[in-house]
Amino acid sequence: MNAPTRVVPNNLEAFWMPFTANRQFKANPRLFVSAKDMHYRTADGREVLDGTAGLWCCNAGHSRPRIVEAIQNQVAELDYAPAFQMGHPKAFELSSRLIQLTPKGIDHVFYTNSGSESVETALKMAIAYHRVKGEGSRFRLIGRERGYHGVNFGGVSVGGIVGNRKMFGTLLTGVDHIRHTHDLTRNAFSRGQPEYGAEFAEDLERVIQLHDASTVAAVIVEPVAGSTGVLIPPKGYLERIRAICDKYGVLLIFDEVITGFGRLGQPFAADYFGVTPDLMTTAKGITSGVIPMGAVFVKKEIHDAFMNGPEHLIEFFHGYTYSANPVACAAALGTLDTYQEEGLLTRAAELADHWADGVHSLKDLPHVIDTRNLGLIGAIELEPIAGQPTKRAFTAFLDAYEKGLLIRTTGDIIALSPPLIITKAQIDQLFDTLRGVLKALD
Ligand SMILES: Cc1ncc(COP(=O)(O)O)c(C=O)c1O
């Protein structure tokens, strides 16, 4: 790793930081100045083990040579090309590469710049698809309690995290939610998928019947809910959701923004669970987080339904200035090369047992009310301090950072999702550090 850079800005005021306790941060800032492979380096010269792949995105680790080189070459050769009515070769090359990874039948790609934009795109596609098929009455969207689908209006509307919803008015109309799947009374300390709760899927049938199937366009779920604190789907749950969608002609959207690109030991969660959605939203791991990019993967029937009418007309009135940006495409190609050369899209499967041992080794520590895992995802749920929700986990986050480990917390849940290059020794180090942090908690 490079020698530490110690340049620290002397005024932090102007930057209004996203999803951050701004005043707390600015009183005691935590700045990363460089990163390599599994580690960040802080402004005060300390190494921090990345237990979260940045924000669930740096699946290949940090500053990986293939990706760095691909970006450097691309920006010098073709920095930008208009995204509408024009193309560039790498966008097509990348698409062909990507659809070799997607489940059978999902063979078209629409590019965005983030997970939030992928979600908006998929929701619009679903509604428009029914319309081009002559079923314009299907406009309702169904999400799930505790779901996270980014921060734009559509995604917040189908999302189910109260704090993300309550400040922003009426949101989208025509949206309903099914119940979440978190059930610690029956499933606490599950290793892998919880045993109980497939029947929670029946709530989808109830909601579809309430509105009548003829008004419902799509349901969107995260195969494994991440941002709400890692909720692993009970055995049989996703299969049941798929069957209900088929029964009522409702499109199933998997939000694979965190599960896509190897997190569970398969390219996508759809592969891991053996359940194929109609659309998949992705971002993050598509470029290993290095350049903003997202993609919506679509079944052939959905794409083909739009390909009608006069050929000079635009088929889908949607897109972004930076859709398939050349530098992002190059970054994604460099990322896919890295994944493929190093077997990273299946590496989580090899590490999953060792990882699960680490996660569950924390189960008897004070305040721990649940430990759970799947692939290279782990969560430790803490008993909240009475009257001060989130404080206990946030204290753990701050202490872990001081002890050289980056974790992520949401509510009183610690979520772990390291880069897929993590070694077994680093997994042990991660859980040893976390054990020290949890033992020190009040
Ligand atoms: C499942 C899911 N969907 C959507 C998003 C939003 O992605 P972005 O922050 O890139 O807009 C996230 C981000 O964490 C996510 O986890």
Q: Would you write up a description of this structure?
A:
The protein is α/β, with parallel strands linked by helices and 442 residues long. It has two domains: 22-51 and 343-439, Aspartate Aminotransferase, domain 1 (Alpha-Beta Complex); 67-342, Aspartate Aminotransferase, domain 2. Helices cover 36% and strands 16% of the residues. It is built from 16 helices and 15 strands. It has helices at 22-27, 53-56, 65-77, 89-98, 115-132, 153-158, 162-165, 184-187, 202-211, 237-248, 269-273, 300-306, 326-342, 344-360, 391-402, 424-439, and strands at 32-36, 39-42, 47-50, 106-112, 140-144, 175-178, 216-221, 251-255, 279-282, 294-299, 368-374, 377-382, 405-406, 408-410, 413-416. The strands form three sheets. It has a seven-stranded mixed beta sheet, with helices on both faces. Strands 1-2-3-13 form a four-stranded mixed beta sheet. Helix 4 (89-98) packs parallel to helix 13. The longest helix has 18 residues, at 115-132. The protein starts with 21 loop residues before the first helix and ends with a helix. The protein binds pyridoxal-5'-phosphate (PLP).
